[in-house]
Design brief:
The structure holds two protein chains of two kinds.
Chain A: H1 2-9, H2 25-53, H3 61-65, H4 68-92, H5 96-126, H6 139-172, H7 176-206
Helix pairs in contact in A: 2-6, 2-7, 4-5, 4-7, 5-6, 6-7
Chain B: H1 2-7, H2 13-30, H3 37-59, H4 67-92
The chains are: A mainly alpha, B mainly alpha.
Chain lengths: 207, 109
């Protein structure tokens, strides 16, 4: 009986080891997931570079795609990262109402981002850019553009849904420590999406 | 919570926001500079890496976490760098590649 109780309180972890994230396993889990996800984006961007280097008629992205709108989208995502950290900061100081407001603002920023991306895609498709067609040169330009920005856009969409569900969790749960933990883990995902966009903006639009 | 708060001694979140905003403006200005394409490319990659590092270190609190968590985060960066190194020699020897002077052409119909 006492053996079973001891086993429950001491899970199978080496006594000399301390967890990487003492606050919660969720945080470690999110980091491991993000590392894997980053490899996906890394491969996409590296293969974009390889295809571009091997192509003789790759268009100049900044001229074809236009960067005014995407610069605005970049700024928007950076702002939404700030509202995310503000939400966490308010949770830390116990101001739940403000934390929830900042969380909603973050989700709103993400939703506007996806909306602007839809607008941009529509505009480009009307001008003839397709997954399998590009009026300005290499066909692969269209394919890689839609795959990379689409993959990122899906992450933003998933992030908005994730943030809204976290809003539900911190509204219903009464444990302040738990609220902080789930919001911090969600924040990691959100900042990662921002980080990836910084890379996509540089490699697909500016370079 | 109070303990981890005391550990955060880095710049404030608003400072990071301004760094990111300014770096973005510099990035956009860089592509109009009358210098070589390679120089622009190197500057853009450096600026983007700086922005990504700011987000990871401060917004994602990586600077205040254990070192091993940082190694987990660095793994994909190392793998991506290796992938580029593997692909780079081949792309440099592409015979038909012109140094950026083949730009936008009129739509072919």
């Amino acid at each position: 009986m006492s053996d079973a109780a001891t086993a429950l309180h001491h899970p199978a972890v080496e006594p000399v080891e301390s967890p990487l994230t003492p606050e919660s396993w969720g945080k470690l889990g999110m980091w491991v997931f993000l590392a894997g996800d980053a490899m996906g984006f890394g491969v996409l961007l590296a293969s974009y570079g390889a295809m571009r280097a091997g192509s003789a008629d790759w268009p100049n992205p900044a001229e074809v795609l236009g960067i005014q709108l995407t610069a605005l989208m970049t700024f928007l995502l950076i702002c939404s990262s700030v509202t995310m950290v503000k939400s966490l900061e308010n949770l830390k100081s116990g101001n739940l109402a403000r934390a929830k407001m900042f969380l909603l603002l973050t989700a709103l920023g993400g939703a506007i981002f996806v909306g602007l991306q839809a607008y941009e895609w529509t505009h480009l498709i009307h001008r003839g850019l397709m997954v399998f067609g590009n009026p300005w040169g290499a066909t692969l330009f269209g394919a890689s553009f839609f795959i990379i920005t689409g993959f990122h856009g899906m992450h933003v969409t998933a992030g908005v849904i994730y943030l809204l569900s976290i809003y539900g969790v911190i509204s219903r749960n009464s444990d302040m420590g738990y609220k902080y933990m789930v919001t911090e883990v969600a924040g990691l995902y959100w900042h990662f999406v921002d980080l990836v966009w910084i890379m996509v903006f540089t490699f697909v639009y500016l370079l | 919570m109070a303990q981890s708060h005391a550990e955060h001694h880095g710049p404030s979140y608003m400072a990071i926001f301004w760094y990111l905003a300014v770096l973005t403006v510099i990035e956009i200005a860089v592509i109009f500079l009358p210098i070589g394409k390679l120089a622009i490319g190197v500057m853009l990659v450096a600026l983007a890496s700086a922005k990504a590092a700011l987000v990871a270190l401060y917004f994602m609190h990586l600077r205040f976490e254990t070192k091993t968590l940082g190694y987990i985060a660095l793994t994909p960066v190392v793998i991506a760098a290796l992938l580029v190194l593997v692909l780079l020699p081949d792309s440099l020897y592409m015979p038909h590649q012109t140094a950026g002077d083949k730009k936008m052409e009129a739509p072919k119909h």
